[in-house]
Design brief:
This protein has 205 residues and is mostly helical. The protein has a domain at 35-159. 79% of the residues lie in helices and 0% in strands. It is built from 8 helices and no strands. The chain is rod-shaped and about 140 Å long. The termini are far apart. This is DUF4355 domain-containing protein. Residues 1-32 are annotated as: Disordered.
């Protein structure tokens, strides 16, 4: 009985070892970076670390300044610092307002170009002009485009007018009355037709 248990245990161990040996290790996907990508990553990290150390240095420098000041100097320094921060915020806000106004102004110019039937890409060229100049330029370009279109239409009409058209009407058959009204030159030009009409006329008599 014990021998059977030992045999079973050995068999299980062998099967387990074989199973482990048959398991293929899956290769891990490794991402490769180009030199440009590596440079970009390193630059970002360097900028981040630089800003961090600049902040620490500025904090230390400010702490040293404050430690050497009396209460009045500290109050003045704190006031000037807050005033500087306020001015910076005002500048940032003004820049955002100017950017928003520029976007709205460009949208208005784009709408005017669409109404005039002109390319909206011209808005990039007109956005730096005042409203009066923009209106003048749009009217001038509208007239120019209109004149060009009219010239193209007239050229096409003239070209189509010069193309000979095939008439579906059958030429009128000559009669003896027509021949009597024709000149000698006309009779000679249409001699074959005249001879045929005269011959048919006398044959019916």
């Amino acid at each position: 009985m014990e021998d059977n248990q030992i045999l079973n245990t050995n068999t299980q161990n062998q099967v387990s070892e074989q199973s482990e040996g048959n398991v293929e290790t899956q290769p891990q996907d490794t991402k490769t970076f180009t030199q440009e990508e590596l440079d970009r990553i390193l630059t970002k990290r360097l900028e981040k670390e630089t800003k961090k150390w600049e902040a620490k240095f500025n904090a230390l420098e400010e702490s040293q300044k404050l430690s050497q000041m009396n209460e009045e100097q500290k109050a003045e320094y704190d006031f000037n610092k807050k005033l500087e921060e306020l001015q910076q915020r005002e500048q940032e806000l003004e820049a955002k307002i100017n950017q928003y106004n520029q976007q709205q102004y460009k949208a208005t110019i784009t709408s005017q170009l669409q109404e005039a039937g002109l390319p909206v890409s011209m808005a990039d060229l007109l956005v730096n002009m005042d409203a009066e100049s923009v209106a003048t330029q749009i009217n001038a370009m509208k007239d120019l485009f209109s004149n060009q279109i009219n010239a193209q239409i007239q050229a096409k009409v003239q070209a189509s007018a010069n193309v000979p058209t095939m008439s579906n009407e059958q030429p009128k058959a000559l009669t003896m009355e027509d021949i009597s009204k024709m000149s000698t030159q006309e009779i000679m030009q249409r001699k074959a037709e005249v001879d045929k009409v005269v011959k048919e006329y006398y044959m019916t008599k």
